[in-house]
Design a protein that fits this description.
This protein is mainly alpha-helical and about 200 residues long. The chain has two domains: about 45 residues, Arc Repressor Mutant, subunit A (Orthogonal Bundle), CATH 1.10.10.60; about 110 residues, Tetracycline Repressor, domain 2, CATH 1.10.357. The chain is about 65% helix and about 0% strand. The protein contains nine helices and no strands. Helix 2 packs across helix 3. The protein is elongated, with a radius of gyration of 20 Å. The termini are far apart.
Length: about 200
């Protein structure tokens, strides 16, 4: 995906984006992925192929854009009353979504469209996860609870889930994810100094 931020379109541009995204999602649900083409999407969306090429450049960029929109969180992370509870609920849901066939396909689309060598920016998926974890950490701080660092959660909870998914390894189990969350929370707690 381009490293240039794309402003959210309004008016006709928003209608075109919505129609193209909808057509793409429908086709992904209805036909074999290899059969999807820009002209097929354009016909379904009621636009010309040149409209799609002008806006997205190619099919992989369009698929990545659709995937990013589908992966964008539509609500705040669950509030269970504790940092650990919030993190466990969020991580279980993240694992379920990322290890599903749909989740794997969307992440592959996003990664395939990125030029990881030159962008120098984190993938939108990583930014979404970091934002959700940041919200949990800030909520925990507001409650006066000990909280892990967001980067530690990204490295120890999110990264193993995504790594295993991207490289076709057996998915992280719910027990793996829970153990990682609990270890991050435990490491965030102040150390007790033993007195002699």
């Amino acid at each position: 995906m381009s490293s240039q931020p794309v402003p959210r379109p309004g008016g006709r541009s928003a209608r075109v984006q919505a129609a193209v995204h909808l057509a793409t999602r429908q086709l992904l649900d209805e036909v074999d992925r290899g059969a999807i083409t820009v002209p097929l999407i354009a016909t379904r969306a009621g636009v010309t192929p040149s409209t799609i090429y002008r806006r997205w450049g190619d099919l992989s960029e369009l698929l990545a854009d659709v995937a990013v929109e589908r992966l964008r969180p539509d609500s705040e992370p669950p509030d269970t009353g504790t940092v650990q509870g919030d993190l466990l609920a969020w991580a279980d849901q993240f694992r379920d979504e990322m290890t599903s066939e749909v989740g794997r396909s969307m992440v592959r689309d996003v990664v395939a469209a990125r030029d990881l060598e030159t962008t120098g920016e984190p993938c939108a998926c990583a930014q979404f996860a970091k934002g959700q974890l940041g919200a949990i950490v800030e909520r925990g701080k507001a409650r006066g609870q000990q909280v892990p660092k967001v980067d530690a959660l990204m490295d120890r909870v999110v990264a193993p889930i995504v790594y295993r998914m991207v490289f076709g390894l057996p998915p992280a189990t719910p027990a793996d994810v829970r153990a990682s969350v609990k270890a991050c929370v435990k490491d965030a707690a102040p150390r007790q100094v033993l007195r002699k």
